[in-house]
Amino acid sequence: LFSLEGKTVAITGGARGLGITLAIAVVEAGGSVACLDILEQPSADEWALLNKIAKANGSSVSYQRCDVTNEDSVDEVMTAIATEADKNGAPFWGCIACAGIQQQLSAFDYPAADFDRILKVNVTGVFNTCKYTARVLRDRKTPGSIVMIASMSGNIANRGLACTAYNTSKAAVQQMCRSLAQEFGEYQIRCNTLSPGYIRTAMTDQLLIENPEVEKTWMAGALLGRLGAPEDFKAPAVFLLSEGASFVHGSDLRVDGGHCA
Ligand code: NAD
Fold first, then answer.
1. Considering only Cβ atoms within 10 Å of each terminal Cβ, which end of the chain, N or C, has fewer?
2. pLDDT given at position 159
3. What is the CATH number of the domain that holds 63?
4. Where are the beta strands (DSSP E) in the chain?
5. Euclidean distance between the first and final Cα of the chain, in Å?
6. Mutation pick for ligand 1 pocket among 11, 16, 18 (CB with most ligand atoms within 8 Å)
7. Separation of alpha carbons 188 and 231, rounded Å
C-alpha cells in the first residue's frame, strides 16, 4: 500500500537533517531519490547509509547543488531529474519541499532584509519547488504527490522563541498548499503539508546554543516526554507520497507528539 517502488522523488534540503532522513525513508520504501541542497555535499554518514540501502533495493540516488530561491535553477534541475528518472526506469513522481531556514531575533530588532530572506527560502523556495515539480508532472500527463514541510509553528507561536518571520513563513506554506491543491487536483497531482513539532537537528541545535533555557519550555509541552527525531517523520512522509494517500489532498498532517504550546 505504501510502496514507492518505480517512483523518483526530489527532496530539497536533502543534504542533512530531516531532508536526508526522508530520502532514506523513500529509498527504504523502494523509491529512488534526487537530493537537492545549497550545501556542497551531503552529511557523510547518512549519505553512505542512503547509498547502501539504495544498492540493496536497486534504487537510484543522486545529489545536486540547487538553491531553491533560484527559479531558473529549480526549473532546470526538476526537468533534468525527470529525464534521468525515465532512463532509470523509475519515473518522476513528486517532491518533498524540505529546505528551510530559521532565525531567532526579537521583532523589535528584526531587520526587514532578514525577514525577507526567511520568506524567500521558506515560502518562495517552496513555491518554486512545487511549481516546477507540478509542471513536469502536468507536461508528462502523469499523476504525482508533493509533500511540503511546514511546521506546527504555522499554527502556534512557540513560547520563549522570537521567531516571527519563521512562524509567518510556515503559516504561509500551509495556506500555499491549500491554494495549490485547487489547481493541481485537476492533474491528479496531490499536495499536502507535513507539519513537524520540535526535532533535534542542526536547526534546533542552533536555537539551543542561542537560548539554552528554551529546552525547558519545549519539554513542558512535550506530551510524550521527548522531542521528535528525524526518524519519526519517515512513515508520515512516505504515507503522503504513496498511493495509500490517494484521497489525501490539500491537507495538513501535524506530527508533533501532541505538543501543547
Ligand atoms: P537543517 O538546517 O538541518 O536542514 C535544512 C536544509 O535546508 C539544510 O541542508 C540547508 O542547507 C538547506 N537549505 C537552506 N537554504 C536552502 C536553499 N536556499 N536552497 C536549498 N537548500 C537550502 O534543518 P531541519 O531541522 O532538517 O529542517 C528541515 C525542514 O523541517 C525545514 O523546512 C524546517 O523549517 C522544518 N522543520 C524543522 C523543525 C525542527 O524542529 N528541526 C520543526 C518543524 C519544521
1. N
2. 77
3. 3.40.50.720
4. 8-12, 32-37, 61-65, 92-97, 144-149, 189-196, 252-255
5. 35
6. 18
7. 29
Q: Which three cell numbers stand for residue 160?
A: 520563549
pLDDT band at 158 (very low <50, low <70, confident <90, very high): confident
| Residue 1 domain-assigned (yes or no) | no
Q: Which residues are catalytic?
A: 166, 170
Q: Name residue, grid cell 519539554.
A: 219
Pair 102, 203: CB distance under 8 Å: yes
pLDDT at 160 over 80: no
* Per-residue pLDDT band at 161 (split at 50, 70, 90): confident
Three-state SS for 207?
helix
Report the distance separating Cα 14 and Cα 117, nearest Å. 20
Calpha distance 59→52 (Å, rounded): 10
Centre of ligand 1 from the C-alpha of residue 105, in Å = 18
User: In whole angstroms, what is the distance from residue 98 CA to residue 193 CA?
Assistant: 10
Q: For residue 260, what pLDDT is reported?
A: 87
- Give a yes or no: residue 260 inside a domain: no
